[in-house]
Task: structure prediction
Amino acid sequence: MNLLEGEREEILNSVDEILTSSEINRRNLIPILQSIQERLGYLPRPALEKVADAMGMAAVDVYGVATFYNQFRFHPPGEHQIKVCMGTACYIVGGQIAMDSFARRLNISEGETTPDRKYGLERVACVGCCTMAPVVVVDEQMEGSVTPTRVDGILLSLEANGNGEKPGEEE
Amino acid sequence: MTKFELLRAEAKQRIDEKQGTTLVCVGVATCSMASGALKVKDAFISEIQRKELDARVMEVGCMGHCYAEPLVLIKKPGFPALLYGKLDEDLVERLVEDFLANDDPCFDFALAAIEPNDSFPTLADFPRGFYEEKLILEQCGFINPEDIDHYLAVEGYRGLVGALDKSSAAVIEEVKSARLRGRGGAGFPAGVKWEKCSQQDDKEKYVVCNADEGDPGAFMDRAILESNPHLVLEGMAICGYAVGASKGYIYVRAEYPKATSRLRIAISQAKEKGLLGKNILGSDFSFDIEIFEGSGAFVCGEGTALINSMAGNMGIPETRPPRMAVSGLYGKPTVLNNVKTFAYVPGIVKNGAHWFRQKGTEQNPGTAVFALVGKIKNSGLVEVPMGTTLRRLIYDVGEGIPNDKKFKAVQIGGPSGGCLPEDALDIPIDFDSLHDAGAIMGSGGIVVLDENDCMVTVARYFLEFTQHESCGKCTFCRLGTKHMLDILTAITQGKGSLSDLDLLLELAEDVRDGSLCNLGGTAPNPVLTTLRYFRDEYEAHLEEGRCPARMCKDLIAYYIVPQKCSKLCSACVGSCPTEAIYTREDGIKAITQDKCVKCDNCLKACPPEYDAVEKLSPPVLPGEKGSEKK
Result:
């Protein structure tokens, strides 16, 4: 995904700030990457290069560590990030069905963001809410017992209050 | 009065000051938040304010009764403490009006009372409460996890005080004599590990708490950290004292933000009170705890991978020995235990090894905490003595399978466990017994499966998980699991032949033997156990192109039975996300098979009195039967 105008400067400034406020050593690599992702929502390439520079590591090594872990994203997240839980309990009662429904409605695959950067769709291993399965986390808000009809409801409520507000309960 | 008694007296006083007012405890943990606990909490607060009542609302953790979330415990002076489940804003309004403002406890909505009384049954009167024995979950859901005073008031940190009065050797002896076995799943004796670490001649040592609970279907560690974080901190501090470490780390999973934030609060409060930090309670012992947030790699639950990850590397396991107790984090002697293992420690030190050994079995003393999920009525977090049978756990504690469905299997121990059939239900659960049946206790995730679950799909699911999470170091794990996954995927699509099953078994053995760590070593378990106990299902897929549980998408078709369709209702049409359902000229609904995405919506939408939608497997529609035959 291409960087937007001015995004590169913003990325570099943020990384600069994080690097100056943290101790630069290998033990801190993962916490630093976490801070960057927390700030920017993902790990853009210029950020990884800058971290590698500061750490005195090859960029490929930083990239290697980052890609090893599931938490790190290399695509910018959507304005609304949708995480579909694929834990055992969710899977057996239709987690995949929920995933398919989101993918179909948003026209993207898991791990991707819609071109307008409005919605991002990702798969998470287990959010530990097995009793509410299948579970979807929409902008940090847990939604239990998700069926395709609820998928439509969730997306509609996001459309309706698109200002990043929590989606309302639909009937 | 000692420093500790002073702290306790202060805490009690602060809590007592608030006695006499009504207390509304709202269970707020991740799963209750998912079912709307925060809304319930806000509704209580605003209703109480509106009516200007003398009542307080407090956040507590998880009580384990997840099937009845959101849960609220109301303590009103003059009434037994009552637990209410499945609350929403309307019920809150009613409870505030009838119970808080007036004196009608609305028994209709109550789940149970907490203490024995004359008016309402307690939790212990239900089979679940009868069989449960809570050693580490005792306070979960009853104390405020964000207020250390609550923990102090229930004898918290007394274990640490007791430990500081003894020699570190005596503390280790107590843990050894309790025969506490590691609750992360391996069941290694904790005392032995601690002793080894204490014998190392090194100034710098570490205590690491493994809270990287990655098993899908397991949430015990999360619930404990969210509901009673101080219990774990206390256990870690005792361990630090016993082995001579002054620094502890909690490796928390990235997906557990609530647990992390509550841990942070707990650590800072404990430091403030002098229960962590320099010269704890005036003694020579100093101990600090820091949080390290994981980044979502299942393999990091393995010890060597975990410490690699903490050092800023990829979480790749390494060969052992040296044991962690000799050379662990940053090359220093390290004790690495699971959340639950640490949680048992304060009780053992406080009440003696005997207290712990009283529960459970000879070789597996104590209790086990399970996350009971899947097709089960009373899903949730349960703590039962070791040696309880699966049958008791599923049918008595969990009250069996919902919707009158038939039990099929129980999946125990996460992706490294196995699927056991009905015959295996009488096995007592402990670290040793399950092994012979092909499963393991693992960390304690139990997923109950019913007749609608396809065992091939379940095995495929777990293999997909382990294949994805394999770190890639060992060839067998990296490529073997991939090959197995490809075969299983083909079977769920009805492709392949019976000889593939032999190949699967062969690969399973190789992957097990050729992998360094337990991720690969146990990855074939779900495949091996399902092949052992449910071979006929595999055969049905391969020979008849049929999925007996009607779960595999490629082997089913949805069909509306014309004789049953009411003609007048359009519930299925409205529910179809792809407009695959249309109305025939005679008013009966039918499905355009090409458009159907098999999402199950029409089946759910069809009113039960018509029950017109059926899943067919093999996917041959009536009337097409002749034409389908080649």
About this structure: The first strand of chain B starts at residue 22 and ends at 27.
